[in-house]
Amino acid sequence: MAASSSSLLHHHHPQLSFTSKSSVQSPPPRYNIVRASTESSSNNSSSNATTNNAAAAAAVTFSKGGNIRDDARRHNVVHSHRFSAKYVPFNADPACDESYSLDEVIYRSQSGGLLDVRHDMDALKHYDGAYWRALFDSRVGKTTWPYGSGVWSKKEWVLPEIDSEDIVSAFEGNSNLFWAERFGKSFMGMNDLWVKHCGISHTGSFKDLGMTVLVSQVNRLKKLNKPVVGVGCASTGDTSAALSAYCAAAGIPSIVFLPANKISIAQLVQPIANGAFVLSLDTDFDGCMQLIREVTSELPIYLANSLNSLRLEGQKTAAIEILQQFDWEVPDWVIVPGGNLGNIYAFYKGFQMCKELGLVDRIPRLVCAQAANANPLYLYYKAGWKDFKSVKANKTFASAIQIGDPVSIDRAVYALKNCDGIVEEATEEELMDAMAQADSTGMFICPHTGVALTALKKLRDSGVIGKTDRTVVVSTAHGLKFTQSKIAYHSKEIKDMACRLANPPVNVSADFGSVMDVLKKYLLSKAPKY
């Protein structure tokens, strides 16, 4: 087996050689780009000058016909080649000179630790905060490739050296940040509660934000003839949905390891529909993760789990988006569900970059919310960050965070310590009641958001989060992916759970009198009490 694996890894292996499609003549430009070169901007420029330059950089005039990807190749709208990024050991000593090109296939440092993507901050600081704010704002709602994406509208901060024509995007991001007025006022005693609905995305979860980055880089690696044939992941559902969709869009094979009978049908059908090679394994997520790591070390399959720090570069843009949607005002709190724990670090990194580059002057406090049935970070936090121990994750309705041995534990702890963060947990009954309560105010959230809302309630009850604190709860997936759990709750079919907010349908005889009796009783129960 070792010999055959080694031969597979060699990118000149005849069975693994690929030929590119015949070139197609490019159609005429769809629009003309009018821009001011960023070369003329510097730290000495006034805010007005940099703002004008940023706006001009994204100005377009449209004409009929054409192809937006071809236009991107013709017109380098922003000179992102001036910027660069590389892999470095996570949280390494500043004197450490170990680094790797993003074009290398590598997931761990020499010591076996995590890697991080480090940007050339000095180069980015050639432009002030006003410039970056104006540039990012100017790209919202546009179809200019690839800047119509909420991720790639921050391309200079994500993958600055990738060619726009190599990017694989469904114009993900730019997700709804809505004021949860009724829920906040009625159940939390808050006037300034917001929900960042990352589930309103291409495949229905925040995982799209990271996967567009990772698959785009794989697309680049394949064009550079790197030894990559496909992309693989272990998944509790959402990662596999995102991976399979973006790989399908790029024509790249995707391989998915799923824990058998532990994810919803809605999540399972997504990678199947998108043509992924799905392996259903008799183990939990942690077992799938161990297997995919072993397999990717032997075969030319690129690892797509959050051990790979590229995905976090896309996920951090959700934090930047929150600031952007608040007109660059910083909320007091941001609450994020946590399982494998890459996302809490991604949010920290996005906020911290905005502070360091002068877009804002502070960062919010972060809360990581875990299911009590899979809570290693919570236990570590309650122990004063002493003696971390993984746990055996028990079954939870918040299946995407049913992880007992999180890959990004060190990243999460770093983020929380540097923002005075908090970790909370939610029992199964608490998270399901919170989900039902939120749904009753017009939302349709996933169980993981129920975990985050439970954390909010506990921090409100204890007075940690004040009634006037601007608070954002991150909803990580769409409720439509979890209809089975909602049906079970409202049917009161969940063992040892009261389902106190269940709202089952009422069976009524199909005659006028019976219907009238039931409706009168219902309306009386809803009438104002004087």
UniProtKB/TrEMBL annotation:
<feature type="compositionally biased region" description="Low complexity">
    <location>
        <begin position="36"/>
        <end position="52"/>
    </location>
</feature>
<protein>
    <recommendedName>
        <fullName>threonine synthase</fullName>
        <ecNumber>4.2.3.1</ecNumber>
    </recommendedName>
</protein>
<comment type="similarity">
    <text>Belongs to the threonine synthase family.</text>
</comment>
<comment type="subunit">
    <text>Homodimer.</text>
</comment>
<dbReference type="InterPro" id="IPR001926">
    <property type="entry name" value="TrpB-like_PALP"/>
</dbReference>
<feature type="modified residue" description="N6-(pyridoxal phosphate)lysine">
    <location>
        <position position="207"/>
    </location>
</feature>
<feature type="domain" description="Tryptophan synthase beta chain-like PALP">
    <location>
        <begin position="169"/>
        <end position="476"/>
    </location>
</feature>
<keyword id="KW-0791">Threonine biosynthesis</keyword>
<keyword id="KW-0663">Pyridoxal phosphate</keyword>
<keyword id="KW-0809">Transit peptide</keyword>
<comment type="function">
    <text>Catalyzes the gamma-elimination of phosphate from L-phosphohomoserine and the beta-addition of water to produce L-threonine.</text>
</comment>
<dbReference type="GO" id="GO:0030170">
    <property type="term" value="F:pyridoxal phosphate binding"/>
</dbReference>
<keyword id="KW-0949">S-adenosyl-L-methionine</keyword>
<dbReference type="InterPro" id="IPR004450">
    <property type="entry name" value="Thr_synthase-like"/>
</dbReference>
<dbReference type="InterPro" id="IPR050214">
    <property type="entry name" value="Cys_Synth/Cystath_Beta-Synth"/>
</dbReference>
<dbReference type="InterPro" id="IPR036052">
    <property type="entry name" value="TrpB-like_PALP_sf"/>
</dbReference>
<comment type="pathway">
    <text>Amino-acid biosynthesis; L-threonine biosynthesis; L-threonine from L-aspartate: step 5/5.</text>
</comment>
<keyword id="KW-0456">Lyase</keyword>
<keyword id="KW-0150">Chloroplast</keyword>
<feature type="compositionally biased region" description="Polar residues">
    <location>
        <begin position="16"/>
        <end position="25"/>
    </location>
</feature>
<feature type="region of interest" description="Disordered">
    <location>
        <begin position="1"/>
        <end position="52"/>
    </location>
</feature>
<keyword id="KW-0021">Allosteric enzyme</keyword>
<dbReference type="Pfam" id="PF00291">
    <property type="entry name" value="PALP"/>
</dbReference>
<dbReference type="GO" id="GO:0009088">
    <property type="term" value="P:threonine biosynthetic process"/>
</dbReference>
<dbReference type="InterPro" id="IPR000634">
    <property type="entry name" value="Ser/Thr_deHydtase_PyrdxlP-BS"/>
</dbReference>
<keyword id="KW-0028">Amino-acid biosynthesis</keyword>
<keyword id="KW-0934">Plastid</keyword>
<dbReference type="GO" id="GO:0009507">
    <property type="term" value="C:chloroplast"/>
</dbReference>
<dbReference type="GO" id="GO:0004795">
    <property type="term" value="F:threonine synthase activity"/>
</dbReference>
